[in-house]
Amino acid sequence: MAVAHTTSGGLDIRKTAMWSFLASELMFFGALISTFLLYRGRTNGGPDAEELFDIPFTSVSSFVLLMSSLTMVLAHNAWERNDQRQLRLWLLSTAGLGLVFLGGQFYEFSTFVHEGLKLDTSPFGSSFYMLTGFHGAHVAVGVLMLSAMSILSFRVGLTKSRGMNVELVALYWHFVDIVWIVIFTVVYLLQV
Amino acid sequence: MATESTAVETTEEEHADHLSPANYWMIALFLAIVTAVEVAITYIPGYDGALLVTSLIVLGIVKFLTVVAFFMHLKYEPFTMNFMFYFGLLGALALFIAVLLSFRALFDTF
Amino acid sequence: MATIVEAPPVAPAAPSSRGGLWGWLTSVDHKKIGIMYGISAFVFFVLGGIEALVIRWQLAVPDGTLVNEEVYNQLFTMHGTTMVFLFVMPVSAAFGNYFMPIMIGARDVAFPRMNALSFWIFISGGIFISSSFFLGGFPDGAWVGYSPLSTQSEVIRMDFWAIGLLILGVASLLGAVNFITTIFTMRAPGMTLFRMPVFVWMQLVVAFLLAFSLPLVTVGLFQVILDRNFGTLFYDAATGGDPILWQHLFWLFGHPEVYILILPAMGIVSEVLPTFSRKPLFGYQFVVFAGAAIGFLGFGVWAHHMFTSGLGPVAETAFGLMTMTIAVPTGIKIFNWVGTMWGGNISFTTPMLFSVGFVAMFTIGGLSGVTHSIVPADTQQHDSYYVVAHFHYVLFGGAVFGVFAGVYYWFGKVFGRMLDETIGKWHYWLMFIGFNLTFAPMHFLGLNGMPRRIATYGDGLGWNYWNFMATVGSFVIALSILVFLYNAVRSYRSGELAGPDPWDGRTLEWTTSSPPADYNFAEVPVVEAIDDFWYKKYGEDEDHLPVRLDTNPLDPSASAPQEEFHVHLPSPSYYPILLAVGIVTLAYGFLWLPVGYLVMAAGLGIMLWAIFGWAMEDIDHPMGDNGHGEGHADDGGGDDAEAELVGTSSEGAE
Fold this sequence. Notes:
The structure holds three protein chains of three kinds.
Chain A: H1 3-6, H2 13-39, H3 49-52, H4 55-80, H5 84-114, H6 123-155, H7 165-188
Chain B: H1 21-41, H2 49-71, H3 79-102
Helix pairs in contact in B: 1-2
Chain C: H1 20-25, H2 30-59, H3 69-103, H4 112-130, H5 157-185, H6 198-230, H7 243-277, H8 284-297, H9 313-325, H10 327-341, H11 350-372, H12 375-381, H13 385-415, H14 421-447, H15 464-494, H16 532-537, E1 538-540, E2 546-548, H17 575-591, H18 596-620, H19 641-645, H20 649-652
Antiparallel strand pairs in C: 1-2
């Protein structure tokens, strides 16, 4: 029956859209990371990466975000099995871990500002805050979407037939995680 | 499965349950270990310079691809989606390496 | 104009007669959205044209006094910005929206509401940038917005520019994602990728170019906005920032953008030439691959815009070579177009004239483009009128001629009545002469040393004669546009009825009624070949000449009132326009902080309302009404494509 839907190779419409959007986002973060790499040494007399970065702390928040990918994929799995209880549990855990990460980023930013790195201190500071800030904004949007999903799951239940939005949110969330994997390596570990 | 353009015949149902929660826990454990190794090698005295940089980049790529392939299920998706994402990834890499090279900003301080 | 198909032309129901103003504002029909894109693009075309006329009037004689330098800067900035972002891009989106789904045998795009959102964000962004005229003056840092011109002026004009382009970028990105998804997932049975019309292929390449290039300029624009408003130092050379980074980010986007502008026109021409040569497109696969190659290589040549910025000999050599390489696929296309016409049974209708004009003018523009790849020569030509001549030959002689070919080709399909051919030929020849009179002299002016972006020039430099001729030419172009507008209004009211297939066409849009039914096809077509419609109309005799078959491959809706077929369609929605209003409110608020915080809060509130309403819309009003029901209640950002499009005539016509 579903004539228009299945004729072109069984590609899922929403997932195709999401992957093309994520490919586009790769370019976005690529440009931000490149800006940072260009400006990493231009400290204009302000503090540099080595003075500021607290690798043990960032490692912990990276670990938190990495584990949120696990809880997300478990939520996705529960959704595929139509297990509403597990779905809720893992959605809320993912949102919670996201909030922990954001809290860590807030703490990190305020420490850095305290130590003298502001948005207008140096091109290094500008590009660092812009990159990590845009990543944080992506996490925040993800947390909002996860919360909305959780509320919906309590009110109406997220069945597989009801769109494929848990899957879309999951793709988005994992994407935010892989961007952080790159940032953690390139921006933090390689700079100290 | 769908690495060729045979993706035309791939339907969604086929890949739905390739991995179980137990698999996901194992993958997460693997990712955690890689992260621990990443952090640890930055503290090993004498393990620095090009060796450290190369190790960190390789480990980062391993983590990145693991999440993409398994958590995002891209390994089990049709060719079209793989193509879009990896094409974008390689394109972004190539473009930005070129830009940074033109500023001579890539190899001077690593 | 051979109207061979026997079906009587159905008197067109003017699209505007269905649903009234509210119907247009809330429409999610790709055809209505396409028409709105087209009309708003032409409004911006006229605005950008008026700016160009003022520029030419100022430069007609030495020491012109019509406008001062400040106003002149605003004029050329807005002329470029308007023509690139508010005319050529949306007019390509207009054709893509209207015809891409029909040409692949779909009933709509994959995400109809998101499609409406693209349009409304585009129009809000266009109004936002243009409204700067009343709020302190047009942007004045040139359409390329080089820092420090974009970052160090105090007035908010360049904020309008940067934020406006961000808004337009969102519209284009949504459109690109929508088109990619539509082309990959919504094709009719049998419509394999290599049976798609070249126009659809070019739309696909353009969608990828947009998806991959827009994020780059988005980052640059954010950096400009942050530098201007939050004291960041991205482009502040005194503290270690590097304005050259902006040039990279801008041209990493800007060069693919050039192909975003030209490829849809190439697609249109690749449809028009075979139709009026009554031959298949010569080397279909080569044209497709050349288009994809142009898109791919287009990402590797951006730095040829920056040869004078001191890239160093290695980079200059590499980018010079890449730039020469990109002429190869372009040349392949030109040869294929000529090969299509060769030996064909050519009828020189107006769309054909514009297409042939396109091929000729684009070839000239392409050749002058190759001269830029030679670095020492480019260093001389840089920022001179030679460059202005070059890109007007590819963008006006190319893109605009292609657009008008498309307008004359498809007007009858869209509005049910044909544009007048006699007036159309007047339009063509006036435009052709005016165009060449305006821009050919600029080659000489540039090589004689006249820099671009100067408000006036002194007497005795040897530039007087050609500048005056260029001004005369520009007013001839303006006259040709007036002729076109007269033709459009007149033909819309009382033109000859088009019927389903006025040009004896080759592609699926000609199987539908003119204008097509809301659902496009009463029966989803089954495709068996490239140019499927043609081969269902014509067989071959022993000399390989086409012989009319005794068939009627038209869609049933072409010969019956569309109400006879009950095809389920997506419901209209006012959330797209609401969301766009929210976004533009947010943008206006940002310009006048701190008072603007209130406006921004209002904008955010509207956006949240729209997003929430959008997400809940399908749950509260399930769209299924006749049982084809699993999987169409949608609670997230995506529209409900499968549910909307499964209603077929076999179900509806019971």
